[in-house]
Amino acid sequence: MARQPTIEFWYEFASTYSYLAAMRIEAAAAEAGVAVRWRPFLLGPIFAAQGWTTSPFNLFPAKGRNMWRDLAREAARYGLPPVTRPDPFPQNSLSATRAAILGQGEDWLIPFTQAVFRASFAEGRSIAEPASVIAILDSLGLDGTQLLKAASAEANKTRLRVAGEEARSRGIYGAPSFLTEDGELFWGNDRLEQALAWAVGERPPGLL
């Protein structure tokens, strides 16, 4: 039996288009015959290195207005609940990302990730406070208090920093990003299908 190809899904909880990708990647990847490795990370340090102090959707208001309309259209197209813009935007995703880093390799990572995105972009709830993250973990039948305590330990903080350094070293500059096993980088929810096709060996005609 041939080995199943894998893509890495790099996502940031404050990212609008990461929300869309997180809610549909499992079904799309299963249909394509591709396994997914979920890679949470913080985009803020990467933006800071470019001299940005906030989301480019805030820095460029016209782009931001169109993004929110586009997000609403795409959510409707995918059959997701109507988008609720979190206030403030972007939300501080540190606690949630620490928890997700802790959950890598655990069966609760995907449901936790999707629950965080739903809370933020479908329900308009804050994900910034540790208590909010604990409540989401508890809702999944987990011990949120103990998990967030472990997520805040120095060893896990180090894992989060290493993930950010890896993202930068591999050329990631935004979220969502998809990396195939040969290092091909695709950026944006609208590139998910292309990433999956690349992962299974499909190449556009004439592209080396």
Automatic annotation (TrEMBL):
Gene behind the chain: nsaD
Annotated family: Belongs to the GST superfamily. NadH family.
Keyword vocabulary terms for this entry: Isomerase
One Pfam family recorded for the sequence: DSBA
Annotated catalysed reactions: 2-hydroxychromene-2-carboxylate = (3E)-4-(2-hydroxyphenyl)-2-oxobut-3-enoate
Record-linked PANTHER family: GLUTATHIONE S-TRANSFERASE KAPPA, GLUTATHIONE S-TRANSFERASE KAPPA 1
Residue span(s) of domain DSBA-like thioredoxin: 6-194
EC number: 5.99.1.4
GO terms for MF: 2-hydroxychromene-2-carboxylate isomerase activity; glutathione peroxidase activity; glutathione transferase activity
Active-site residue numbers: 15 (nucleophile)
BP GO terms, sorted: glutathione metabolic process; naphthalene catabolic process
Organism taxonomic ancestry: Bacteria, Pseudomonadati, Pseudomonadota, Alphaproteobacteria, Hyphomicrobiales
Signal peptide location: none
Keyword set includes Translocase: no
Keyword Metal-binding: no
CDD domains: DsbA_HCCA_Iso
Full protein name: 2-hydroxychromene-2-carboxylate isomerase
InterPro entries membership: DSBA-like_thioredoxin_dom (IPR001853), GST_Kappa/NadH (IPR051924), HCCAis_GSTk (IPR014440), NahD-like (IPR044087), Thioredoxin-like_sf (IPR036249)
